[in-house]
């Protein structure tokens, strides 16, 4: 997640496609409307991989104009992850970069400094995930920019807090899952550590980025000045893990061991039915009474192992093993119908592919299909939050091709066609070239 300048900024040696004689017209981005609360906010996004782009995509969903800075030769590494219809437009990239504009620029070129100066002068937020030392080498350190852009909110996603001894260590999702205790929790108590089968550290950092920037924007409304915002991955995930697992370590001296027993029970898992699996959680006292009556085991209602939260936690493996054995006695559909009627939380175990056809998600319109300018019909996940009577609708033309908006953004900044041509010809910036029909 935290990367070197060499990884982020490119080396200026990329082979450039010949510049098109005539630029093909494309539709303009749809304008943010009243249900996009960040309309009018401009974000310069120099992040790559997952954490930063996920967070800035949420900002774009909320109406911010996000200008994605991409380095040669291929831009964000996620362009090449998983399958795609065209080079550089993988499913991962398309899903995680909706509504952004792409400017391809070699940040290691001295001539790029003037471009970045104009961009940052027009922006509300600058966010990057370079190591601070690498950002300083590129003239993009906080100290470099603060005096010239006092209202700019400067955000650095870093692997580790910069006041600690790990400050310069590289960090990626796997490393942080291991260091934060999350992998150990996944294997607790009798199995080897395991990674969660999701880039959960990256995505948690992206969400943390969003709330941090919203708070900084709110503070600027009051004070008129920007500030530096640091969002460290390691500390964020340690805080995340310890929410329920701090346990007895909360007290000084320690009053018992860490770990929330219910969460780490080996019997806390989807339960097998006669023909599949279901997720079921019998949690409150009232739910336990209803469940025991449903299965005609009223004799256990007064059993200390089932009667109180403390009793259930103290005997969680035995309690959950009991539920597992009961659930194995009937079919998935039967259990869902019976448990829903008893108002006990239950749900099917969906595969990822099942989500596309989930009737509830269809009711709320979570998925939207639109015609991408180069890649045809694209399915995206719409914003999940709601403001007033409706959720924000997707903004823009979908995820951008590498360098799609270089020309337009430079025009917006006051560069002439001749100046842009020179910047392209000298390898300072790169412009997407539309393939001939």
Task: Please characterize this protein's 3D structure.
This protein is α/β, with parallel strands linked by helices and 437 residues long. It has 2 domains: 5-240 and 364-430, 3-Layer(aba) Sandwich (Rossmann fold), CATH 3.40.50.10540; 271-348, formyl-coa transferase, domain 3 (2-Layer Sandwich). The chain is 37% helix and 13% strand. The chain has 19 helices and 12 strands. It has helices at residues 5-9, 51-61, 91-96, 112-121, 132-137, 142-146, 173-179, 182-187, 200-223, 233-245, 261-264, 285-294, 304-307, 309-314, 316-327, 332-341, 359-363, 406-412, 417-425; strands at 42-46, 65-70, 100-105, 125-128, 153-158, 228-232, 271-272, 277-280, 346-348, 367-372, 376-381, 429-430. The strands form 3 sheets. It has a 7-stranded mixed beta sheet, with helices on both faces. Helix 9 packs across helix 10. The protein starts with a helix and ends in a 7-residue tail after the last strand. Residues 5-29 have low confidence and may be disordered.
């Amino acid at each position: 997640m935290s990367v070197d300048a060499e990884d982020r900024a490119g080396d200026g040696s990329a082979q450039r496609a010949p510049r098109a004689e005539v630029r093909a017209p494309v539709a303009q981005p749809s304008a943010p409307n009243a249900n996009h609360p960040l309309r009018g906010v401009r974000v310069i996004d120099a992040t790559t991989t997952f954490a930063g782009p996920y967070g800035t995509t949420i900002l774009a969903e909320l109406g911010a104009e996000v200008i994605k800075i991409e380095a040669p030769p291929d831009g964000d590494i996620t362009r090449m992850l998983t399958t795609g219809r065209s080079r550089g437009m993988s499913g991962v990239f398309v899903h995680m970069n909706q509504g952004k504009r792409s400017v391809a620029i070699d940040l290691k070129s001295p001539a790029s400094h003037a471009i970045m100066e104009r961009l940052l002068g027009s922006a509300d937020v600058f966010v990057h995930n370079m190591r601070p030392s690498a950002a300083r080498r590129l003239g993009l350190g906080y100290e470099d920019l603060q005096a010239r852009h006092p209202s700019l909110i400067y955000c650095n996603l870093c692997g580790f807090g910069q006041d600690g001894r790990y400050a310069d260590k590289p960090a990626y999702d796997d490393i942080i899952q291991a260091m934060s205790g999350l992998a150990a929790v996944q294997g607790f108590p009798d199995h080897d550590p395991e990674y969660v089968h999701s880039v959960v550290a990256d995505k948690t950092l992206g969400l943390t980025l969003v709330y941090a920037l919203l708070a900084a924007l709110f503070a600027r409304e009051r004070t008129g000045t920007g500030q530096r915002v640091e969002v460290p991955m390691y500390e964020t995930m340690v805080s995340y893990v310890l929410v329920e697992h701090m346990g007895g370590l909360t007290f000084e001296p320690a009053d018992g061991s860490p770990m929330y027993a219910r969460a780490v029970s080996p019997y806390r898992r989807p339960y097998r039915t006669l023909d599949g699996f279901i997720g079921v959680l019998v949690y409150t006292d009232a739910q336990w009474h209803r469940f025991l009556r449903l299965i005609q085991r009223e004799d256990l209602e007064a059993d200390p192992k089932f009667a109180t939260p403390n009793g259930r936690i103290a005997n969680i493996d035995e309690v959950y093993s009991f539920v597992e054995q009961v659930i194995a006695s009937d079919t998935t559909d039967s259990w869902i119908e019976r448990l829903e009627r008893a108002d006990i939380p239950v749900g099917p175990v969906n595969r990822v592919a099942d989500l596309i056809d989930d009737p509830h998600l269809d009711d709320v319109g979570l998925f939207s299909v639109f015609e991408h300018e180069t890649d045809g019909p694209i399915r995206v996940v719409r914003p999940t939050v709601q403001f007033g009577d409706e959720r924000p609708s997707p903004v823009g033309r979908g995820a951008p091709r590498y360098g799609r908006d270089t020309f337009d953004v430079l025009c917006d900044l006051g560069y002439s066609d001749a100046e842009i041509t020179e910047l392209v010809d000298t390898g300072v910036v790169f412009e997407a070239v539309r393939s001939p029909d």
